[in-house]
UniProtKB/TrEMBL annotation:
The chain crosses the membrane at residues 327-346. Keywords: Coiled coil, Membrane, Transmembrane, Transmembrane helix. This is Uncharacterized protein. InterPro entries: TPR-like_helical_dom_sf, TPR_rpt. SUPFAM superfamilies: TPR-like (SSF48452). Residues 351-427 form a coiled coil.
């Protein structure tokens, strides 16, 4: 199976399943055949075979085989693009694999789970699990797993933005160096693609083209080559080589992936605009919007988060059942009165500890709130001082008539003051009481799937005011000029924070798809020019 998976598959396919009479043999055959198909990169979407294995190994409480069976069930759901179901199975398999100390299987689970988190833009979760995969790979001296983990950590850092580019480059180049042997061709292709994307963002055009070409040469799978064509076309576009860019981007349109098609039409629209063909540019931009909508609808990150909670609840229920079973045995064989007295004593002690814990947490929370308010007042004072300095300096600049040298020097000082003022405004917003309340609501939903708090009208008014201070009255101007509704104004304020979109639905009580739809409506009301599809990007430059 490990050395010659193609031979393993041929042998297993020659077996007649009806000849297997013993249930243990049927389960083992189902698991092996699923495993062999996965190792030969055969797409599997039917889970009926692996269910035979899971049913048997669950009843037999065979933990090593349970771990494998749940992992391959997750692989089937991965192939079927059922991300939430796949994560549920992977999270079920992890503790089982840990109990058996099957490090190789654990590495495979981490790798697959991390990829699904990354695919659904759950970057923090993906980064955490790839860090676990990296530690495991180092322990096992597993080059392939290590390179994959480094590669995806690099990709995650690219997604995080410019400050993380050096870290992304370091991890990707390390992974690239580790996979120079021909046996790592598939892994190195993904690393080359990531490096091309990184250098494209850094505007290192020659390097971006070089790694994009290498990516294509390493790809044998036709479906993967479509994305590679787009990457090379994008690199040529950034280098201003529009003819070459158009050739490769058109090749990528044969892909069935919404993301690939959306990106391809966006680039083609930009090329047409640069070449002066505005009608064609608008037509291509419309296609880009259609595929972008389809891409948003295909996102399943909510399914993944729901699956996580289901697994945690199931594991908790299993623990409670085992504890209840043990307690029943103890009560049966022990003296009834002693047990009752013991339970009462434990309960009293537990309640006392809980009361002390609650009181300590309350005191700590009050202390944190006081510190937060004190810090906020300090920042507001500094901000007011900075505003005064800016106003005075602006007046002095306006009074300079004819002395251009001094005016230029004063303008430089004003630019520095403005940057300092913006940094203070951001820090003040993040230390405000309403911002702290938003954080508490989000954390409560993540932990318990509910929150006792919610933003009232006064909170929203304070939040709008704080956001206006931070972004030079952008919200008030946009609300006035575009006649935005109250809920649309609230969404704009939230989008200008650093909270992920996945967390905003806890605050506005709407699904992510509804948030994306409202973004488009706001952009339309604001008369946003073609080419800008992210409301956050538009607001920051408004």
């Amino acid at each position: 199976m490990e050395e010659y998976p193609d031979s393993a598959l041929r042998i297993l396919e020659s077996v007649e399943p009806q000849q297997l009479k013993v249930q243990a043999d049927k389960a083992y055959y189902a698991l092996l055949l699923t495993q062999a198909r996965d190792k030969n990169y055969i797409v599997q979407t039917d889970d009926s075979l692996i269910r035979i294995a899971i049913k048997h190994y669950d009843s037999a409480e065979n933990i090593p085989m349970q771990a494998k069976a749940y992992y391959y069930k997750g692989c089937i759901y991965r192939d079927a693009n059922r991300c939430g179901d796949a994560i549920k199975e992977f999270l079920t398999a992890i503790p089982l694999a840990q109990k058996t100390e099957n490090q190789r299987l654990l590495g495979l689970i981490y790798n697959n789970a991390g990829y699904l988190y990354y695919l659904q833009d759950l970057l923090e979760e993906a980064d955490s699990i790839y860090q676990l995969a990296e530690k495991l790979a180092i322990q096992r001296n597993d080059t392939s797993l290590w390179a994959e983990a480094l590669s995806f950590q690099g990709k995650i850092n690219i997604e995080r933005g410019i400050p993380y580019y050096p870290k992304a480059e370091e991890k990707l180049l390390k992974a690239f160096e580790m996979t120079s042997a021909p046996s790592y061709k598939r892994v190195q292709a993904g690393i080359a693609a990531a490096l091309s994307s990184l250098y494209n963002s850094m505007e290192f055009n020659k390097k971006a083209i070089q790694y994009a070409q290498l990516n294509i040469s390493l790809r044998s799978d036709t479906a993967q080559r479509y994305r590679a064509f787009l990457l090379l076309g994008d690199a040529y576009f950034k280098a201003g080589q529009y003819d070459s860019a158009t050739i490769y981007i058109n090749k990528s349109l044969l892909s069935t992936g919404y993301g690939t098609k959306a990106s391809a039409y966006m680039r083609l629209a930009e090329i047409a605009k640069a070449q002066g063909d505005l009608d064609r540019s608008l037509a291509l931009a419309e296609k880009h919007s259609l595929y972008l909508d389809s891409l948003h609808l295909s996102k399943q990150s909510n399914d993944i988060l729901i699956a996580e909670k289901k697994v945690v609840k199931q594991q908790y229920s299993n623990t409670i059942e085992r504890q209840n079973s043990k307690l029943h045995i103890v009560i049966t064989v022990s003296i009834l009165l002693v047990c009752i007295a013991g339970v009462i004593y434990v309960k009293l002690k537990s309640n006392q500890r809980k009361t002390r814990t609650i009181e300590q947490k309350q005191a700590l929370l009050e202390k944190e709130q006081q510190e937060l308010q004190q810090k906020y007042r300090q920042l507001k004072n500094k901000l007011n001082q900075k505003e005064t300095e800016i106003t005075c300096l602006q007046k002095e600049i306006n009074q300079q008539h004819g002395n251009e040298e001094k005016k230029k020097k004063l303008q430089q000082e004003l630019d520095i003051l403005t940057k300092e003022r913006n940094a203070l405004a951001k820090e003040a917003l993040e230390h405000s009481e309403v911002y702290s309340k938003i954080e508490r609501i989000i954390n409560s939903y993540k932990k318990d799937d509910e929150s006792e708090e919610q933003l009232n009208d006064d909170d929203w008014q304070r939040f709008i005011a704080e956001t206006d201070v931070r972004w030079d009255k952008a919200i008030t101007r946009l609300r006035t000029q575009s006649e935005l509704e109250k809920e649309e104004v609230h969404l704009c304020c939230l989008l200008l924070t650093d909270f992920p979109v996945a967390n905003l639905e806890y605050i506005v009580r709407q699904t992510r798809n509804t948030i994306y739809r409202k973004e488009k409506e706001i952009l339309k009301k604001a008369g946003c020019p073609p080419g800008i599809n992210k409301l956050k990007e538009f607001l920051k430059n408004y």
